[in-house]
Amino acid sequence: MADLARLSINQATTQAQYGLAEAIAAYSNADVAGISIWRDKLAECGLDKAVRMLADRGLRVSGLCRGGMFPGADAAARQANIDDNLLAIDEAVALGAACVVLVCGGIPEGSKDLAGTREMIRDGLGAILPHARAAGVPLAIEPLHPMYAADRCSINTLGQALDLCDQLDGCHGADLGVAVDVYHLWWDPDLQAQIERAGERVLAFHVCDWLVPTTDLLLDRGMMGDGVINIRQIRDWVDATGYDGLIEVEIFSAQNWWKRPGDEVINTCRKRFLETV
Ligand code: ZN
Fold first, then answer.
1. pTM, two decimal places
2. How far does the centroid of ligand 1 lie from the alpha carbon of residue 99, in Å?
3. What is the pLDDT of residue 169?
């Protein structure tokens, strides 16, 4: 059963309503235990102010969004992406984030080389892993639904993400792991087996729902309970790995939840979390 002590809200869920400082205040006022922070909002707020507010409010950080985006058309572009990831790791340290969430990136413009794109992702991960290890910040590869394979992330199943972990992090210390997001993975017939395989590599668990019909590939995620995902079943599989960290509500919803008052969104997240997660 869900317990509000494990509820985190990804600030994208209220990105139209709140900046980071407002989100920290609103979530903690509603007894939400954690927040996942976006780097653009962090830059607007300022790192020092955010760190201070999180400490004052006792809010935990379930993840920093986002690192990744490794592919690039040339070596200079790929190096710039690596440098940006190193910075994200440093920010995650300051915030005490549970992990850096990696949306690994898609095919560079003009290319049709999917296999090569995946090699760039592997190489980029390999380049930042030593810094993450030294900093003590786990890296969570987030496999994205295959509809994003071209433009956002060419890692599209949990099995693929775990293969990368095994290649790069053989010691299995979970310096490198995965973010399990029901929106991206619910359809996979192999999901239960792959979550079991992930074990301690589960570093984050994201929930929302898949609406029928879905009217926008990016910005029409549903509130838990409004769609077709059996969230509690996936939750049971994740629980069985021993994962006991925060569970993050992450809803991009341009035409619905982003248009509602922030407190209504937060209260609905709390209610549905208890009912369906
Ligand atoms: Zn997610």
1. 0.97
2. 12
3. 85
H/E element, 66: strand 60-68
Distance from Cα 25 to the centre of ligand 1, integer Å: 22
Number of CB atoms found within 10 A of residue 54's CB: 22
- CATH number, domain of 191, equals 3.20.20.150
In tens, the pLDDT along 147-201 reads 999 999 999 999 999 999 999 987 656 799 999 999 999 999 999 999 999 999 9
pLDDT in the model for residue 171: 66
Residues of the domain holding 107: 4-276
- C-alpha 181 to ligand 1 mean position (Å): 5
Residues within 5 Å of ion ligand 1, judged at the Cβ atom: 181, 206, 250
pLDDT in tens, 3-47: 899 999 999 999 999 999 999 999 999 999 999 999 999 999 999
Instruction: Tell me whether strands 7-10 and 139-141 are parallel, antiparallel or unpaired.
Output: unpaired
Q: How far is the CA of 159 from the centre of ligand 1 (A)?
A: 16
Q: CB–CB of 248/10 below 8 Å?
A: yes
Cβ atoms of residues 60 and 33 within 8 Å? yes
List Cα–Cα distances, 151 to 131, 197, 220, 242, in angstroms: 26, 28, 17, 33
Q: Burial letters for 206-227: b for 16+ Cβ neighbours within 10 Å, e otherwise?
A: bbbbbbeeeeeeeebbbbbebb
Query: Residues 242-248: what's their mean pLDDT?
Result: 97
Domain count, the chain: 1
Name the residue with tokens 């935990």: 60
CA 228 to centroid of chain Cα atoms: 21
Question: How far does residue 253's CA lie from ligand 1's centre (Å)?
Answer: 14
Q: What is the mean pLDDT of the chain?
A: 97
| 177 CA distance to ligand 1 middle (Å) | 14
